[in-house]
Structures are given as structure tokens and as C-alpha cells.
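Hi support team,

I'm filing this because I wasn't sure whether my run with magnesium ion finished correctly. The job status page said complete, but I'd like someone to confirm that the output block is well-formed before I use it downstream. Pasting the exact inputs I used:
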Amino acid sequence: MLETRDLTIRFGGHVAVNSVSCAFAPGTLTAIVGPNGAGKTTYFNLISGQLKATAGTVSLDGQPLSHLSPSARTHAGLGRAFQLTNLFPNLTVLENVRLAVQATRAGAHRHGLNLWSIWSDHKALTERAEQILADVALEPRAHATVASLPHGDQRKLEVALLMALEPKVFMFDEPTAGMHAAEAPVILDLIRKLKQDKTKTILLVEHKMDVVRELADRIIVLHNGTLVADGEPAEVIASPVVQEAYLGIAKEAA
Ligand SMILES: Nc1ncnc2c1ncn2[C@@H]1O[C@H](COP(=O)(O)OP(=O)(O)OP(=O)(O)O)[C@@H](O)[C@H]1O
Ligand SMILES: [Mg+2]
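And here is everything the job wrote out:
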């Protein structure tokens, strides 16, 4: 269970996330919606540790994470899509994903150093990386350098790297933003597949209400940094506070 308690951050006088208390259970996909500037991305940054909270706590399975660095939180099982600036731009797509798989597996089990294990590990890592690339439909780009990728493929690679981490908690922040209409279904299929693994906790920030309606088990609404609604999708979408709070989004999706 991922839990935030009274999570708050101020930027100067502006409270971007205001005392948000919420728990996210394994096997649940929670959509986080709200107007532009509501604090959705900031909330993710507080959970992943990219931003330091002014007040409040984050915990995973009862373990406090608030004092941990972003990489320590990743190690604890929090998966946030990578910023591509963290990658090796002159290595290929496959090499980058293989390194991410390797980093994850190295944490899981260490072998003594012998030629057989190096060779068999290398083969297993490559196969796993290739599988992940197939899952996000990036196989045709496997041997392209990251620096050469068009935007849509960069977004797919971000998701591929998240998969490679095998986290307990997946945080997707508008995963299909900037993709061509033809590319988005691959990512949405992948999230759909992830949902079938009932041990995963999935958080999805998404403006497209048709996507939210289809994928979400639960919707929470942020408005001016405050949690204003939380519940079953149909119920939340119909609630007056939501209709009022983000009429703009409803129009956009229509
Ligand atoms: N590093 C920062 N310094 C100062 N203000 C910030 C910073 N990051 C975010 N903010 C402010 O916090 C508020 C919430 O921003 P945030 O990006 O979390 O919104 P959002 O809900 O993700 O919006 P969108 O739907 O447009 O992505 C905004 O008013 C934003 O300007
Ligand atoms: Mg945002």
C-alpha cells in the first residue's frame, strides 16, 4: 500500500499540493485528474522524491519513504517514468533498456563472477530487454540511438524503462501526451495488461476522460492542490464538484 499523509508543498506563498492524504492499494488503477496547474505532477514529484515536501509523509507498505532520495525510493519499489535526460543518448534503445534491466536484476540477486554466469546473464538480460521493446512496439528502433528518436518513440522508451524496473507502484503522468493518435493505443494496451497483474499499484494522471473512464478503478480529483473528490469513476465524474472544477477538461475530451 502506497500512502501519503498530509502531503504538502509550498512554492513561495503558493500551496501547490495541500495536505493530501490518500492510500493506493495493489491491484488498483487510480486516475488522478484535475485542471491544469491543479498539482498532479507536483504530487507525483513529492511521492517519487524529486521534490521535497514542506510537510507530510509518504510511505510504502508501512515503510516511511520521506527521508529517502529518489533513487532509494525507486529501489523501494516506486516506479516513475524516467526522464530521458537520465539516459545514455549515444547508446541504442536496446542497450539502454538492457542496462535498466541489469540494474534491477543486480539488486535482486548477485552471482559470483564466472564466465558462464556473465554469458547466460547477458543473454537473459538481452531477451528481457527485447521483450520489453516488443511490448511497447519499439522493436524497429532497437538499434537506433536514443538521441535520434522522434518524440512519440521517446515517450515509449520512457514507459519501457519503467517496465524494466519492475516496480510495485507505476506512476504514469500523461503517458501518451504528444504521441500521434496511432501510437497511443500501444501504451494504453500495456497499462491494461499491467492492470491484470493484481499485485501492481498504478497511478495515472490523464486528461483524456474516455481513457480515464475505461481504465480507472477509482478517480481522485485535485483542484488548487487539494483533494476534492475520491471514489468510483462514474460517481466522481457525475459529482457537482467535478463538473464544476474541471468543466474545461470535460469540454476538451468531448
Ligand atoms: N518547481 C516549481 N516552482 C514553483 N512553482 C511550481 C513548481 N512546480 C510546479 N509549480 C506550480 O505548482 C502548481 C501545480 O503545478 P503542476 O505542474 O503540479 O500541475 P498539474 O496538475 O500537473 O498541471 P498540468 O495538467 O498542466 O500538467 C502550478 O501552479 C505550478 O505553476
Ligand atoms: Mg502535470
